[in-house]
Amino acid sequence: MLSAAQVARIRNDFPVFDREVAGTPLAYLDSGATAQKPATVIDAEQDFYAQRNAAVHRGAHTLAVEATEAFEGARAAVAAFVGADPDELCWTKNATEALNVVAYGLANASAGLGGAEAARFALGPGDTIVVTEMEHHANLVPWQQLAARTGAGLRWIPLGEDGRLDLTDLDDIVDEHAKVLAFSHVSNVLGTINPVGALVERARRVGALTVLDACQSAPHLPLDLHGLGVDFAAFSGHKMLAPTGIGALYGRAELLAALPPVLTGGSMITTVTMEGAQFMAPPQRFEAGTQPVAQAVGFGAAVDYLRHIGMAAIADREEALAQRLVEGVARIPGVRLLGPADAADRIASVAVDVQGVHAHDVGQYLDAQGVAVRVGHHCAQPLHRRYGVTASTRASAYLYTTDEECERFLAALAEVRGFFGADS
Protein backbone atom coordinates (compact mmCIF):
# COMPACT_ATOMS: atom_id res chain seq x y z
CA MET A 1 0.00 0.00 0.00
CA LEU A 2 1.15 3.55 -0.67
CA SER A 3 2.18 5.39 2.48
CA ALA A 4 1.21 8.97 3.25
CA ALA A 5 4.76 10.03 2.39
CA GLN A 6 4.56 8.26 -0.98
CA VAL A 7 1.22 9.93 -1.76
CA ALA A 8 2.77 13.30 -0.90
CA ARG A 9 5.63 12.62 -3.33
CA ILE A 10 3.15 11.55 -6.01
CA ARG A 11 1.21 14.79 -5.58
CA ASN A 12 4.38 16.76 -6.26
CA ASP A 13 4.33 15.29 -9.77
CA PHE A 14 0.95 16.94 -10.54
CA PRO A 15 1.08 20.68 -11.27
CA VAL A 16 -2.65 21.15 -10.64
CA PHE A 17 -2.24 20.57 -6.92
CA ASP A 18 -0.36 23.84 -6.59
CA ARG A 19 -3.58 25.78 -7.07
CA GLU A 20 -6.38 26.80 -4.76
CA VAL A 21 -10.16 26.86 -5.19
CA ALA A 22 -12.34 29.17 -3.08
CA GLY A 23 -9.26 30.29 -1.19
CA THR A 24 -8.34 26.79 -0.04
CA PRO A 25 -6.15 24.00 -1.45
CA LEU A 26 -7.95 22.01 -4.13
CA ALA A 27 -9.38 18.67 -3.02
CA TYR A 28 -9.93 16.93 -6.35
CA LEU A 29 -12.41 14.08 -5.93
CA ASP A 30 -13.59 13.81 -9.53
CA SER A 31 -11.04 11.38 -10.95
CA GLY A 32 -13.84 9.05 -12.02
CA ALA A 33 -14.73 11.67 -14.62
CA THR A 34 -11.18 12.58 -15.60
CA ALA A 35 -7.85 12.14 -13.86
CA GLN A 36 -5.26 14.85 -13.38
CA LYS A 37 -2.00 14.64 -15.35
CA PRO A 38 1.53 14.28 -13.99
CA ALA A 39 4.27 16.46 -15.41
CA THR A 40 5.83 13.48 -17.20
CA VAL A 41 2.69 13.04 -19.31
CA ILE A 42 2.41 16.75 -20.07
CA ASP A 43 6.11 16.84 -20.97
CA ALA A 44 5.88 13.76 -23.19
CA GLU A 45 3.11 15.27 -25.30
CA GLN A 46 4.86 18.64 -25.51
CA ASP A 47 8.19 17.00 -26.38
CA PHE A 48 6.57 15.10 -29.23
CA TYR A 49 5.22 18.30 -30.77
CA ALA A 50 8.50 20.14 -30.19
CA GLN A 51 10.91 17.48 -31.44
CA ARG A 52 9.33 14.79 -33.63
CA ASN A 53 5.94 15.95 -34.86
CA ALA A 54 5.19 14.21 -38.16
CA ALA A 55 2.63 11.95 -39.80
CA VAL A 56 3.09 8.31 -38.82
CA HIS A 57 3.34 5.35 -41.19
CA ARG A 58 3.57 7.77 -44.14
CA GLY A 59 7.11 8.99 -44.59
CA ALA A 60 10.74 7.93 -44.76
CA HIS A 61 12.28 11.12 -43.35
CA THR A 62 13.77 11.20 -39.87
CA LEU A 63 10.88 12.89 -38.10
CA ALA A 64 8.35 10.51 -39.65
CA VAL A 65 10.39 7.51 -38.54
CA GLU A 66 10.76 8.89 -35.01
CA ALA A 67 7.06 9.75 -34.81
CA THR A 68 6.08 6.26 -35.94
CA GLU A 69 8.42 4.68 -33.43
CA ALA A 70 6.97 6.79 -30.62
CA PHE A 71 3.40 6.04 -31.74
CA GLU A 72 3.90 2.29 -31.95
CA GLY A 73 6.03 2.26 -28.81
CA ALA A 74 3.10 3.77 -26.94
CA ARG A 75 0.81 1.09 -28.35
CA ALA A 76 3.14 -1.63 -27.09
CA ALA A 77 3.36 0.00 -23.64
CA VAL A 78 -0.41 0.38 -23.22
CA ALA A 79 -1.07 -3.13 -24.55
CA ALA A 80 1.39 -4.65 -22.09
CA PHE A 81 -0.14 -2.62 -19.27
CA VAL A 82 -3.57 -4.24 -19.81
CA GLY A 83 -2.29 -7.73 -20.62
CA ALA A 84 -2.71 -7.66 -24.40
CA ASP A 85 -0.55 -7.95 -27.50
CA PRO A 86 0.21 -4.79 -29.53
CA ASP A 87 -1.74 -5.99 -32.57
CA GLU A 88 -4.82 -6.42 -30.33
CA LEU A 89 -4.94 -2.74 -29.31
CA CYS A 90 -6.56 -0.18 -31.61
CA TRP A 91 -6.45 3.55 -30.90
CA THR A 92 -9.77 5.37 -30.69
CA LYS A 93 -10.63 8.86 -29.52
CA ASN A 94 -12.27 7.47 -26.36
CA ALA A 95 -13.93 4.39 -24.92
CA THR A 96 -17.31 5.41 -26.33
CA GLU A 97 -15.90 5.24 -29.84
CA ALA A 98 -14.26 1.90 -29.06
CA LEU A 99 -17.56 0.38 -27.95
CA ASN A 100 -19.29 1.80 -31.02
CA VAL A 101 -16.63 0.28 -33.28
CA VAL A 102 -17.62 -3.15 -31.97
CA ALA A 103 -21.37 -2.53 -32.09
CA TYR A 104 -21.34 -1.02 -35.57
CA GLY A 105 -18.86 -3.64 -36.74
CA LEU A 106 -21.40 -6.28 -35.76
CA ALA A 107 -24.09 -4.28 -37.59
CA ASN A 108 -21.94 -4.23 -40.72
CA ALA A 109 -21.41 -7.98 -40.45
CA SER A 110 -25.16 -8.44 -40.02
CA ALA A 111 -25.65 -6.48 -43.26
CA GLY A 112 -23.37 -8.90 -45.11
CA LEU A 113 -20.14 -6.90 -45.05
CA GLY A 114 -16.84 -8.55 -44.24
CA GLY A 115 -17.39 -11.78 -46.14
CA ALA A 116 -17.45 -15.28 -44.76
CA GLU A 117 -15.09 -14.48 -41.88
CA ALA A 118 -17.50 -11.88 -40.52
CA ALA A 119 -20.54 -14.15 -40.71
CA ARG A 120 -19.89 -15.28 -37.13
CA PHE A 121 -20.86 -11.76 -35.99
CA ALA A 122 -24.23 -11.57 -37.74
CA LEU A 123 -27.30 -10.90 -35.61
CA GLY A 124 -30.96 -11.00 -36.49
CA PRO A 125 -34.45 -11.63 -35.12
CA GLY A 126 -34.40 -14.33 -32.48
CA ASP A 127 -30.93 -13.36 -31.25
CA THR A 128 -30.41 -11.35 -28.07
CA ILE A 129 -27.92 -8.78 -26.84
CA VAL A 130 -27.44 -8.70 -23.06
CA VAL A 131 -26.26 -5.72 -21.01
CA THR A 132 -26.67 -4.81 -17.34
CA GLU A 133 -28.81 -2.27 -15.53
CA MET A 134 -25.72 -0.47 -14.23
CA GLU A 135 -24.20 0.41 -17.60
CA HIS A 136 -22.85 3.79 -18.59
CA HIS A 137 -24.79 5.03 -21.61
CA ALA A 138 -21.70 4.36 -23.75
CA ASN A 139 -22.17 0.64 -23.11
CA LEU A 140 -25.94 0.72 -23.47
CA VAL A 141 -27.03 3.02 -26.29
CA PRO A 142 -24.79 1.39 -28.96
CA TRP A 143 -26.36 -1.98 -28.14
CA GLN A 144 -29.85 -0.50 -28.27
CA GLN A 145 -28.97 0.82 -31.72
CA LEU A 146 -27.55 -2.54 -32.81
CA ALA A 147 -30.75 -4.28 -31.69
CA ALA A 148 -32.83 -1.76 -33.66
CA ARG A 149 -30.72 -2.24 -36.78
CA THR A 150 -30.68 -6.04 -36.72
CA GLY A 151 -33.99 -6.99 -35.14
CA ALA A 152 -32.21 -8.68 -32.24
CA GLY A 153 -33.71 -8.44 -28.77
CA LEU A 154 -32.16 -6.55 -25.86
CA ARG A 155 -32.11 -7.99 -22.35
CA TRP A 156 -30.35 -6.94 -19.16
CA ILE A 157 -29.07 -8.32 -15.90
CA PRO A 158 -30.83 -6.41 -13.08
CA LEU A 159 -29.32 -4.60 -10.13
CA GLY A 160 -29.97 -5.80 -6.61
CA GLU A 161 -30.75 -3.56 -3.66
CA ASP A 162 -27.13 -3.88 -2.50
CA GLY A 163 -25.66 -2.20 -5.59
CA ARG A 164 -24.40 -5.45 -7.07
CA LEU A 165 -25.66 -7.36 -10.08
CA ASP A 166 -28.41 -9.83 -9.31
CA LEU A 167 -27.19 -13.01 -11.01
CA THR A 168 -30.08 -15.17 -9.80
CA ASP A 169 -31.51 -15.56 -13.31
CA LEU A 170 -28.21 -15.28 -15.19
CA ASP A 171 -28.65 -18.58 -17.03
CA ASP A 172 -32.13 -17.56 -18.21
CA ILE A 173 -31.05 -14.09 -19.32
CA VAL A 174 -27.85 -15.21 -21.04
CA ASP A 175 -29.37 -18.20 -22.80
CA GLU A 176 -28.65 -19.95 -26.08
CA HIS A 177 -30.07 -17.00 -28.02
CA ALA A 178 -27.52 -14.56 -26.60
CA LYS A 179 -24.91 -13.34 -29.09
CA VAL A 180 -23.37 -10.51 -27.06
CA LEU A 181 -22.87 -9.92 -23.34
CA ALA A 182 -21.64 -6.35 -22.69
CA PHE A 183 -20.92 -5.26 -19.13
CA SER A 184 -18.84 -2.92 -16.98
CA HIS A 185 -15.89 -4.23 -15.05
CA VAL A 186 -16.55 -1.53 -12.42
CA SER A 187 -19.66 0.63 -12.13
CA ASN A 188 -18.89 4.30 -12.72
CA VAL A 189 -21.59 5.25 -10.18
CA LEU A 190 -21.66 2.52 -7.56
CA GLY A 191 -17.97 1.61 -7.57
CA THR A 192 -18.96 -2.06 -7.65
CA ILE A 193 -16.39 -4.50 -9.06
CA ASN A 194 -18.32 -7.06 -11.08
CA PRO A 195 -17.60 -10.83 -11.18
CA VAL A 196 -16.03 -10.94 -14.63
CA GLY A 197 -15.14 -14.62 -14.36
CA ALA A 198 -18.72 -15.76 -13.77
CA LEU A 199 -20.07 -13.59 -16.58
CA VAL A 200 -17.43 -14.69 -19.08
CA GLU A 201 -17.95 -18.34 -18.18
CA ARG A 202 -21.68 -18.08 -18.81
CA ALA A 203 -21.18 -16.26 -22.11
CA ARG A 204 -18.71 -18.86 -23.30
CA ARG A 205 -21.10 -21.65 -22.41
CA VAL A 206 -23.70 -20.28 -24.86
CA GLY A 207 -21.23 -18.95 -27.45
CA ALA A 208 -21.83 -15.23 -26.82
CA LEU A 209 -19.19 -12.56 -27.37
CA THR A 210 -18.12 -10.62 -24.27
CA VAL A 211 -17.52 -6.88 -24.39
CA LEU A 212 -15.97 -5.31 -21.27
CA ASP A 213 -16.19 -1.64 -20.34
CA ALA A 214 -12.90 -1.27 -18.47
CA CYS A 215 -12.98 2.52 -18.06
CA GLN A 216 -13.19 2.37 -14.26
CA SER A 217 -10.96 -0.66 -13.78
CA ALA A 218 -7.93 0.11 -15.97
CA PRO A 219 -6.98 3.17 -13.86
CA HIS A 220 -7.50 1.52 -10.47
CA LEU A 221 -6.87 -2.23 -10.62
CA PRO A 222 -4.23 -4.54 -12.10
CA LEU A 223 -5.75 -5.51 -15.46
CA ASP A 224 -5.01 -8.64 -17.50
CA LEU A 225 -7.39 -8.85 -20.44
CA HIS A 226 -5.96 -12.17 -21.62
CA GLY A 227 -6.41 -13.55 -18.13
CA LEU A 228 -9.98 -12.29 -17.89
CA GLY A 229 -10.81 -14.03 -21.15
CA VAL A 230 -13.01 -11.28 -22.59
CA ASP A 231 -13.39 -10.95 -26.35
CA PHE A 232 -13.38 -7.14 -26.56
CA ALA A 233 -12.68 -4.35 -24.07
CA ALA A 234 -12.65 -0.56 -24.09
CA PHE A 235 -10.98 2.02 -21.89
CA SER A 236 -10.11 5.73 -21.95
CA GLY A 237 -6.74 7.40 -21.50
CA HIS A 238 -7.97 10.51 -19.72
CA LYS A 239 -9.22 8.52 -16.72
CA MET A 240 -5.75 7.01 -16.19
CA LEU A 241 -3.49 10.10 -16.25
CA ALA A 242 -3.26 10.31 -20.06
CA PRO A 243 -4.38 13.17 -22.33
CA THR A 244 -7.95 13.58 -23.50
CA GLY A 245 -8.89 12.50 -27.01
CA ILE A 246 -7.34 9.03 -26.78
CA GLY A 247 -8.88 5.68 -25.90
CA ALA A 248 -8.35 2.07 -26.85
CA LEU A 249 -10.23 -0.91 -28.17
CA TYR A 250 -8.92 -4.33 -27.27
CA GLY A 251 -10.00 -7.34 -29.26
CA ARG A 252 -8.76 -10.89 -29.47
CA ALA A 253 -6.56 -11.04 -32.55
CA GLU A 254 -8.69 -13.50 -34.51
CA LEU A 255 -11.83 -11.49 -33.83
CA LEU A 256 -10.34 -8.16 -34.88
CA ALA A 257 -9.11 -9.81 -38.07
CA ALA A 258 -12.68 -10.80 -38.94
CA LEU A 259 -14.58 -7.72 -37.71
CA PRO A 260 -15.63 -5.32 -40.50
CA PRO A 261 -14.33 -1.77 -39.99
CA VAL A 262 -16.68 1.10 -39.26
CA LEU A 263 -14.60 4.17 -40.13
CA THR A 264 -13.07 3.90 -43.59
CA GLY A 265 -10.77 6.06 -45.69
CA GLY A 266 -7.06 6.76 -45.54
CA SER A 267 -4.48 4.92 -43.43
CA MET A 268 -6.49 1.70 -43.17
CA ILE A 269 -6.39 0.32 -46.72
CA THR A 270 -3.99 -1.77 -48.81
CA THR A 271 -5.52 -1.32 -52.28
CA VAL A 272 -8.19 1.03 -53.60
CA THR A 273 -9.78 0.95 -57.05
CA MET A 274 -12.81 2.82 -58.33
CA GLU A 275 -14.81 -0.32 -57.69
CA GLY A 276 -13.72 -1.22 -54.17
CA ALA A 277 -11.05 -1.39 -51.47
CA GLN A 278 -9.05 -3.90 -49.47
CA PHE A 279 -8.40 -3.20 -45.80
CA MET A 280 -5.26 -3.51 -43.72
CA ALA A 281 -4.89 -6.01 -40.91
CA PRO A 282 -5.68 -4.87 -37.37
CA PRO A 283 -4.96 -2.63 -35.61
CA GLN A 284 -4.53 -0.21 -38.53
CA ARG A 285 -7.81 -1.44 -40.03
CA PHE A 286 -9.64 0.43 -37.27
CA GLU A 287 -7.54 3.63 -37.34
CA ALA A 288 -8.75 5.54 -40.39
CA GLY A 289 -7.47 9.06 -41.00
CA THR A 290 -4.98 11.10 -39.02
CA GLN A 291 -4.20 9.31 -35.80
CA PRO A 292 -4.03 10.86 -32.29
CA VAL A 293 -0.27 10.57 -32.26
CA ALA A 294 0.72 13.03 -29.52
CA GLN A 295 -2.11 11.77 -27.32
CA ALA A 296 -0.94 8.19 -27.80
CA VAL A 297 2.59 9.19 -26.79
CA GLY A 298 1.11 10.81 -23.68
CA PHE A 299 -0.86 7.63 -23.00
CA GLY A 300 2.35 5.62 -23.15
CA ALA A 301 3.94 7.98 -20.63
CA ALA A 302 0.89 7.64 -18.37
CA VAL A 303 1.06 3.85 -18.19
CA ASP A 304 4.80 4.07 -17.60
CA TYR A 305 4.06 6.31 -14.62
CA LEU A 306 1.39 3.96 -13.27
CA ARG A 307 3.64 0.95 -13.76
CA HIS A 308 6.42 2.68 -11.84
CA ILE A 309 4.07 3.33 -8.90
CA GLY A 310 2.60 -0.19 -9.12
CA MET A 311 -1.02 -1.04 -9.77
CA ALA A 312 -1.20 -3.45 -6.83
CA ALA A 313 -0.04 -0.69 -4.49
CA ILE A 314 -2.56 1.72 -6.01
CA ALA A 315 -5.39 -0.81 -5.60
CA ASP A 316 -4.45 -1.44 -1.97
CA ARG A 317 -4.32 2.27 -1.22
CA GLU A 318 -7.71 2.84 -2.85
CA GLU A 319 -9.23 -0.03 -0.87
CA ALA A 320 -8.32 1.85 2.30
CA LEU A 321 -9.76 5.08 0.89
CA ALA A 322 -12.95 3.24 -0.08
CA GLN A 323 -13.30 2.01 3.51
CA ARG A 324 -12.83 5.56 4.82
CA LEU A 325 -15.39 7.02 2.42
CA VAL A 326 -18.04 4.32 2.87
CA GLU A 327 -17.82 4.38 6.65
CA GLY A 328 -17.78 8.18 6.70
CA VAL A 329 -20.90 8.49 4.55
CA ALA A 330 -22.71 5.97 6.75
CA ARG A 331 -22.22 8.26 9.75
CA ILE A 332 -23.95 11.26 8.14
CA PRO A 333 -27.71 11.53 8.83
CA GLY A 334 -29.91 12.04 5.80
CA VAL A 335 -27.26 10.91 3.31
CA ARG A 336 -27.89 7.70 1.38
CA LEU A 337 -25.05 5.75 -0.17
CA LEU A 338 -25.82 4.29 -3.59
CA GLY A 339 -24.10 0.95 -3.96
CA PRO A 340 -22.53 -1.61 -1.65
CA ALA A 341 -22.66 -0.63 2.00
CA ASP A 342 -19.20 -2.08 2.64
CA ALA A 343 -15.83 -1.54 1.00
CA ALA A 344 -15.47 -5.10 -0.31
CA ASP A 345 -15.26 -5.51 -4.08
CA ARG A 346 -15.43 -1.81 -4.86
CA ILE A 347 -13.13 1.03 -5.84
CA ALA A 348 -12.72 4.30 -3.93
CA SER A 349 -15.74 5.99 -5.46
CA VAL A 350 -18.95 6.82 -3.60
CA ALA A 351 -22.19 8.21 -4.99
CA VAL A 352 -24.71 9.66 -2.56
CA ASP A 353 -28.22 11.06 -2.45
CA VAL A 354 -28.66 13.87 0.09
CA GLN A 355 -32.21 13.96 1.42
CA GLY A 356 -33.97 17.20 0.57
CA VAL A 357 -31.09 18.71 -1.45
CA HIS A 358 -30.57 18.42 -5.21
CA ALA A 359 -27.24 16.93 -6.29
CA HIS A 360 -26.29 20.11 -8.15
CA ASP A 361 -26.75 22.16 -4.96
CA VAL A 362 -24.65 19.63 -3.07
CA GLY A 363 -21.91 19.97 -5.65
CA GLN A 364 -21.95 23.76 -5.52
CA TYR A 365 -21.71 23.77 -1.73
CA LEU A 366 -18.76 21.36 -1.84
CA ASP A 367 -17.06 23.44 -4.53
CA ALA A 368 -17.35 26.49 -2.28
CA GLN A 369 -15.27 24.49 0.22
CA GLY A 370 -12.67 23.69 -2.45
CA VAL A 371 -13.89 20.11 -2.91
CA ALA A 372 -14.42 19.04 -6.53
CA VAL A 373 -16.95 16.24 -7.10
CA ARG A 374 -19.21 15.09 -9.93
CA VAL A 375 -22.98 15.68 -9.91
CA GLY A 376 -25.78 14.47 -12.18
CA HIS A 377 -26.79 11.09 -13.53
CA HIS A 378 -23.22 10.25 -14.59
CA CYS A 379 -24.44 8.95 -17.97
CA ALA A 380 -26.31 6.18 -16.15
CA GLN A 381 -29.97 7.15 -16.05
CA PRO A 382 -31.39 3.60 -15.81
CA LEU A 383 -29.19 2.94 -12.76
CA HIS A 384 -30.42 6.05 -11.00
CA ARG A 385 -34.01 5.26 -11.92
CA ARG A 386 -33.53 1.80 -10.38
CA TYR A 387 -32.71 3.42 -7.04
CA GLY A 388 -35.42 6.06 -7.24
CA VAL A 389 -33.25 9.14 -7.79
CA THR A 390 -32.66 11.41 -10.77
CA ALA A 391 -29.14 12.47 -9.84
CA SER A 392 -26.41 11.84 -7.30
CA THR A 393 -23.19 13.35 -6.00
CA ARG A 394 -20.07 11.27 -6.63
CA ALA A 395 -16.69 11.56 -4.94
CA SER A 396 -14.00 9.48 -6.64
CA ALA A 397 -10.43 9.11 -5.40
CA TYR A 398 -7.21 8.11 -7.10
CA LEU A 399 -3.55 7.46 -6.32
CA TYR A 400 -2.95 11.14 -5.45
CA THR A 401 -5.92 11.46 -3.04
CA THR A 402 -5.05 12.05 0.61
CA ASP A 403 -6.87 10.97 3.75
CA GLU A 404 -7.29 14.65 4.62
CA GLU A 405 -9.09 15.32 1.33
CA CYS A 406 -11.54 12.51 2.05
CA GLU A 407 -12.19 13.97 5.48
CA ARG A 408 -12.74 17.42 3.97
CA PHE A 409 -15.32 15.91 1.64
CA LEU A 410 -17.09 14.08 4.46
CA ALA A 411 -17.09 17.14 6.73
CA ALA A 412 -18.51 19.38 4.00
CA LEU A 413 -21.08 16.75 3.04
CA ALA A 414 -22.26 16.61 6.67
CA GLU A 415 -22.94 20.35 6.53
CA VAL A 416 -25.02 20.36 3.35
CA ARG A 417 -28.48 19.61 4.76
CA GLY A 418 -28.08 22.16 7.52
CA PHE A 419 -26.93 24.84 5.07
CA PHE A 420 -30.00 24.33 2.89
CA GLY A 421 -32.39 23.93 5.83
CA ALA A 422 -33.18 20.32 4.88
CA ASP A 423 -32.53 18.93 8.36
CA SER A 424 -35.39 20.75 10.07
Task: Give me the secondary-structure topology.
Layout: H1 4-11, E1 20-21, E2 24-25, E3 27-28, H2 39-51, H3 62-81, E4 89-92, H4 95-110, H5 115-118, E5 128-132, H6 141-150, E6 153-157, H7 170-173, E7 178-184, H8 196-206, E8 209-213, H9 225-228, E9 232-236, E10 247-251, H10 253-258, E11 269-272, E12 277-279, H11 293-309, H12 311-330, E13 335-338, E14 349-354, H13 359-368, E15 371-372, E16 374-376, H14 381-386, E17 392-396, H15 403-419
Parallel strand pairs: 3-15, 5-6, 5-7, 7-8, 8-9
Antiparallel strand pairs: 1-2, 4-10, 9-10, 11-12, 13-14, 14-17, 16-17
The figure for the number of domains is 2
- Cα separation of the termini: 42 Å
Helix fraction bin: 25-40%
Question: What's the CATH architecture of the largest domain?
Answer: 3-Layer(aba) Sandwich
What CATH calls the topology of the largest domain is Aspartate Aminotransferase, domain 2
What is the total tally of β strands? Answer: 17
Strand order of the largest sheet: 4-10-9-8-7-5-6
**Structural class based on helices, strands and sheet pairing:** alpha/beta
If helices are DSSP runs of H or I spanning 4 or more residues, what is the number of helices?
15
Q: What is the average of the pLDDT values?
A: 97
Beta-strand content estimate: 15-25%
- Supply Rg: 22 Å
What is the CATH H-level superfamily of the largest domain?
A: Type I PLP-dependent aspartate aminotransferase-like (Major domain)
